[in-house]
Amino acid sequence: MGKLDGRTVLISGAARGQGEQEARLFAAEGAKVVIADVLDEQGQALAKELGEDVALFVHLDVSQEADWQAAVAAAKGAFGRIDGLVNNAGILRFNELVSTPLEEFQQVVQVNQVGAFLGIRTVAPEIEAAGGGTIVNTSSFTGLTGMAFVGAYAATKHAVLGLTRVAAIELAAKKIRVNAVCPGAVDTAMSNPALLDPAADVAESSEALDAYYSKLVPLGRIGRPQEVAALALFLTSDDSSYITGQPFVIDGGWLAGVSLF
C-alpha cells in the first residue's frame, strides 16, 4: 500500500524540478496527481509518462484566479475530488534591492506570493469537501533569513510562511493541515541553468555546484529535488498527522551557522 492511496493532489509548477519529483513520488505512493504548470509540453509529457489513470496535466498560471478555477474544475472532472495541494510554483530573480525595477518585484510577488494565496483560497474548500487533507507551501530558507541580491524572492518567501501559519489556524477545524517546506540550494533549473541546455554536461554542472556548496553547506553538497519531494510527501501523508503551521528547513545545515574549518 502507498502512503497516498486514494488521494488526489494538485501540484503547481510540476512540469520540472521539485514539482516534477513530487508528482513522480506522489504517484508512486498511490496518489492521483494533477500536474499544473505553464510549461505545457513538459507537463503533458510527464502526465503521459505517468499514465492517464494516474496523472492529469492542466495549464496553470498561478497568478491568475481564472486559471486556478479551471484547474480545480479539470481535477474534479478527472478524479472527482481534491485531497491535497502543493503550492510549488515559483520564480527567482537576482538583483540588488535598490536596483530592482518595480515591475520585476511585482512579477515575483504575483507568482510566489499571490500564487500561493490563490491556491489556498481556491483549493481549500475542495479539500474540506473531500473530508480534509493537506496543503504544503513552498517557501525557502530565505523565508527565515536574508540573502543579498534576492530581495524580492526573500520577501515573498517570508510572506508564504505568514500565509502558512494563518491558513493552518483557520483551516484546522476543517481538517486541513498546512505546512511549508523551506529548501536551501537545490539542483534544479532555478539554481542550475545548465539543466535547460540540451548541449550542457549536466553531471559536470552538478559536480561544480557540489564543489561550490561544499564551502557553504555542512553536508558538503547541493540538495537534490528528490529530497525535497520526500519532505513534501511526509507533510502530505499521515506520517505528519499532528503537524500543522510549521516551516521545515531542508538545506543541508546551511542555516545552522558558520563553520570556521
Structure in words:
This protein starts with 7 loop residues before the first strand and ends in an 11-residue tail after the last strand. Strand 4, helix 4 (102-129) and strand 5 form a beta-alpha-beta unit. The chain is globular, with a radius of gyration of 18 Å. The chain is of the alpha/beta class and 261 residues long. It is built from seven helices and seven strands; from the N terminus they run βαβαβαβαβαβααβ. The longest helix has 28 residues, at 102-129. The chain has helices spanning 17-28, 40-50, 65-79, 102-129, 151-171, 202-213, 225-236; strands at 8-12, 32-37, 55-59, 84-87, 133-138, 176-183, 247-250. Strands 3-2-1-4-5-6-7 form a seven-stranded parallel beta sheet, with helices on both faces.
Give me a quick take on this structure.
The chain has 261 residues and is α/β, with parallel strands linked by helices.
